[in-house]
Write a structure and sequence with these properties.
This protein is an alpha/beta fold and about 375 residues long. Helix content is about 30%, strand content about 20%. An 11-stranded mixed beta sheet has the order 5-4-1-8-9-10-11-12-13-15-14, sandwiched between helices. Strands 3-2-6-7 form a 4-stranded mixed beta sheet. Helix 5 links the parallel strand 9 and strand 10.
């Protein structure tokens, strides 16, 4: 029986405070009743880590909380993941938190305090944290100021260490605002790309870092152009999260690049688009992180590109059925069973010319229906 890969998740840690809202967006000057306040861990580290754990994979976390009462709450909320010595207290710092405003319809908004994340650097991921891990995921560098400083030197240092240690790696972004908007993110990404296996931003995040204007979400050529630019920067595998339109994947045709990461030929030069699964929506907070958790779990376990993004889309759909990022995530076996049981997808038209639909896999392929072997 193959060994189950272990994951190290590093980067942003916060506590999410989500009031239950039975209304639309509040109007200025009005007092609106809210339901119970839901406490949960948020940020890339707890979200991806908890989702991986629920899927059935061992995880280690690396991040910082403050030496305040909210830090104690954070440590308590992380207890279900077992002992996590990589989550450490930063003296004199406050614990990061987000107030999540999630109305009945429309997108969410966040009131965010960066807290201890402001001082997180590559040195907060120790060699012992990496020992025995198969994969390093780092998330949300735009709200990790020390990691983004000086052209992303600390971010590059972290990924370089992981690469030298034989780990596969992945990178995710987040909304870019405030001081982060002044960073030359394309240059930062170019420095990181040689050490990153999978780059997995959302479409809006990718447009922002590549300084591209916003367009209609369904414009396939926009998505393809952003993916091409990301591949040109040097990422071997690019996965773009498209919200309700699903997931797009593109991979390099450079056999040496993917070969160095020990990928089989079925990964070379691929373009795939998988529609979303139908879900009973509760809260989309952290759904992108759950998507990434299933994606990297599948890849690390030897899945091909079709299965990897299908499992990723399914896990993202499960995530929105819970009150936080990971409560709705099942085991990998349960996820497989739900897909095999005929779980319906959202309706999907052809993305554009040159795309072929495989009704058995419920996936769109560019350039023909046959897999590249």
């Amino acid at each position: 029986m193959p060994e189950i890969p272990s994951f190290l998740i590093a980067g942003h840690v916060c506590v999410d405070l989500t009031p239950a809202l039975g209304c639309e967006w509040p109007q200025p000057g009005l007092l609106l009743e809210a339901g119970d306040l839901h406490f949960s861990m948020g940020g890339a580290v707890p979200n991806v880590g908890t989702a991986l754990s629920r899927l059935g994979y061992p995880v280690r976390l690396a991040g910082l909380v403050g030496d305040d009462r909210l830090g104690a709450i954070a440590m308590q909320l992380l207890q279900p993941l077992g002992k996590q010595p990589g989550i450490r207290i930063a003296p004199g710092q406050s614990t990061s938190y987000s107030v999540v405003i999630a109305p009945q319809s429309g997108d969410r908004a966040f009131l965010h305090c960066t807290g201890a994340n402001v001082v997180f650097t590559s040195s907060d991921v120790r060699d012992e944290d990496m020992d025995g891990a198969a994969w390093l995921h780092c998330g949300y560098p735009p709200i990790l100021p020390a990691m983004a400083a000086e052209g992303g030197a600390e971010l590059v240092r972290l990924f370089s260490r992981a690469r030298q240690g034989g780990l596969r790696t992945s990178l995710d972004l987040c909304s870019i605002a405030g001081n982060a908007a002044s960073v030359d993110w394309e240059t930062v990404l170019g420095k990181c790309a040689p050490y990153v296996t999978v780059f997995a931003p959302s479409i809006d995040e990718l447009r922002t870092v590549l300084r591209q204007p916003g367009r209609e979400l369904g414009e396939i050529e926009d998505v393809r152009n952003l993916a091409r630019r990301s591949l040109e920067i040097g990422f071997p595998i690019v996965v773009i999260k498209l919200g309700v339109l699903g997931i797009y994947l593109a991979t390099t045709s450079d056999h040496k690049n993917l070969g160095d990461w020990k990928f089989s030929r079925e990964w070379y030069g691929r373009e795939l688009w998988v529609p979303c699964f139908r879900a009973k929506f509760v809260n989309a907070t952290g759904a992108g992180d759950a998507t990434i958790a299933a994606l990297i779990a599948s890849i690390a376990s030897g899945a091909g590109p079709e299965r990897a993004i299908t499992i990723a889309a399914a896990c993202g759909a499960c995530s929105v059925e819970g009150p936080d990022a990971a409560s709705g995530v099942p085991t990998m076996c349960e996820l497989d069973a739900r897909i095999r049981g005929g779980w319906q997808r959202l309706d999907s038209d052809a993305p554009g010319a040159g795309w072929t639909y495989d009704p058995n896999a419920a996936i769109w392929r560019f350039g023909g229906s046959d897999e590249k072997n």
